[in-house]
Amino acid sequence: MAATPTLTQRPVMTANTIRPDALEKMPTSEASARGAAIYSQSWLLTIYDWWVLGIVSTYAWACSVPMYTLPWFRRNVRKGQHLDVGVGTGYYLAQTDLTGVQVTLADLNQDALDATKDRLVGDGKVKAEDTRCILHDITRPLPSSCPKFDSMSLYYLLHCMPGPVPAKTAIFSHLKHNLTPDGVISGASILGRDVQHNLFGRFIMAFGNWKGMFDNRADNAADFDDALREHFHEVETQVRGVIFLWSASKPKGMSDK
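User: That's the sequence. What structure does it adopt?
Assistant: Structure tokens below.
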């Protein structure tokens, strides 16, 4: 496995970074910004794969990433245009065959975008000129310059978003318009309700919600499933440990054109 890149603290805008005017006119909510700010800490991104995707996912969330989450990610990445939202360190993309895939990265944090793109390019997974970064609040519609995507991924993102499940899943009302008719959107999120958290998991949940990294005490599989079915004709979900894995396709309310 390739080493996670070390980050600089100062955001650097690159030629392949899209910074829509709309984002500058509509400030990001304080809660969203607080959740994203943690990824500006280089030490955290350096240990993220080992700690969050290794130790915490396996022993707190009872959902092994190599066994469950990564295969779910891989099966839902399509050739063509792919959008990854809330990029973290780029772990899932770095562990996936991206032959024939053009990647667009979207995140509120420039450090995470830069680190993920550097990792994918450095590993030879993508070409720099074919990879775009969008500094963007996903609660807002995507820039008009974005293409239709054949697949989208939102892994370990929804539990970080502020508000109850209906507020979080409101993003599907605009994301589905950026999905091709045969496209698929998928993700994984930590549930807070109607699951059994162990002692380690309860500690991480309490700390994450206290620090504002999470807002998921009321998140539950039934509400997520209902929200997905409101926007998509085909939905597949499962719960592994306390992780909600989901994928959806065939958006509802779309033109047949």
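The two ends are 43 Å apart (CA to CA).
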